[in-house]
Amino acid sequence: MSKPPTLELPEGARARQLRTPRGEFAVHEAGEPTRGTVLLVPGFTGSKEDFITLLTPVAQAGYRVVAVDGRGQYESAGPLEGSGYAQPELAADVSAQCAALGGGVHLLGHSLGGLICRAAVLAEPKAFRSFTAMSSGPASVGAQQQERLKLLLGALPVMEMAAIWQAMRDLDPPEAADAQTPQAVGDFLRRRWLATSPHQLIAGAEQLLAEPDRVDQLAALDIPCHVLSGERDYAWPVELMDDMAHRLGAQRSLIPGAEHSPAVENPEATAQALLAFWQQH
């Protein structure tokens, strides 16, 4: 789970609703599309706030940057039944968001968001200018994370969300723990969890457990790809992401000092790597 260092939007950024034929989505937006538009899609248990550190540097480089809450995530409404969160539905949302932003966006998906974005690219490859998988692997997550997700799937139908939140904190891997988390951020993380649809969480966990390897399908498309991750990752082994980049013929960025959330753990290096890729395409 990404922990944004602050919840305050930087100067020039704004919160708004992005209207699409598939509904409205809460977004944070900054900048003008002088060089293009960037769409940032968060991962499992995440939200648009996970990208707050990228808004200023990307906007200052001449891009309109838009971070979104997907359906059922935090401040975006979602359906009250599980089928509405199937991967094709989530991928169609991403395509609709892209179209609402004028099309041809640079697309980035973090973690589960990377799998959803990959599905969107495979469905409509000409709709996107480039694709970046941030801390997102070729298929299902690693064994340690699978066990945690299975526990969550067992709890969601029978436990209150507040009780699950506490249980999840107890199960966090050591590298995810941070006793220095500011109180406001800690309160936000809990508030975000409670506002997220349980159906969205169930569907997301199931996708992370069952995602097939679709790297060869993506490699067959004519779209620039970028694989970016930290030096360590508790969801997918870094070696798997190295191999995925090789199979894709993709640009590979390894962010020093970062783990599963590079945009939070080393935002400066993450922004530099992203801009270097986007500026080539």
Q: How large, in whole angstroms, is the Cα Rg? A: 17 Å
CATH superfamily: Alpha/Beta hydrolase fold, catalytic domain
Low-confidence stretches: none
Structural class of the secondary structure composition?
A: alpha/beta
Summarize the amount of helix as a percent range: 40-55%
- Give the neighbour order of strands across the main sheet: 1-2-4-3-5-6-7-8
The number of distinct structural domains comes to 1
Figure out the total of helices.
Answer: 11
SSE string, helix = H, strand = E?
EEEHEHEHEHHHHHEHEHH
**Which topology does CATH recognise?**
Rossmann fold
- Distance from N terminus to C terminus (CA atoms, Å) equals 30 Å
Share in β-strands: 15-25%
The first-level CATH class name: Alpha Beta
- Rough shape? globular
* Total count of strands: 8
The CATH architecture would be 3-Layer(aba) Sandwich
Describe it.
There is one protein chain. This protein is α/β, with parallel strands linked by helices. The protein has a single domain (14-278), classed as 3-Layer(aba) Sandwich (Rossmann fold). The protein is 41% helix and 18% strand. The chain has helices at residues 55-60, 87-100, 112-123, 143-155, 161-171, 183-195, 198-210, 215-219, 238-248, 262-265, 267-278, and strands at 14-20, 23-30, 36-41, 63-68, 105-110, 128-134, 225-230, 251-255. The protein has an eight-stranded mixed sheet with strand order 1-2-4-3-5-6-7-8, with helices on both faces. Helix 3 (112-123) links the parallel strand 5 and strand 6. Helix 2 crosses helix 3 (112-123). It is globular and about 50 Å long. The model has no long low-confidence stretch (mean pLDDT 94). One of its GO terms (molecular function) is hydrolase activity. Pfam families: Abhydrolase_1. InterPro entries: AB_hydrolase_1, AB_hydrolase_fold, Carboxylesterase_BioH.
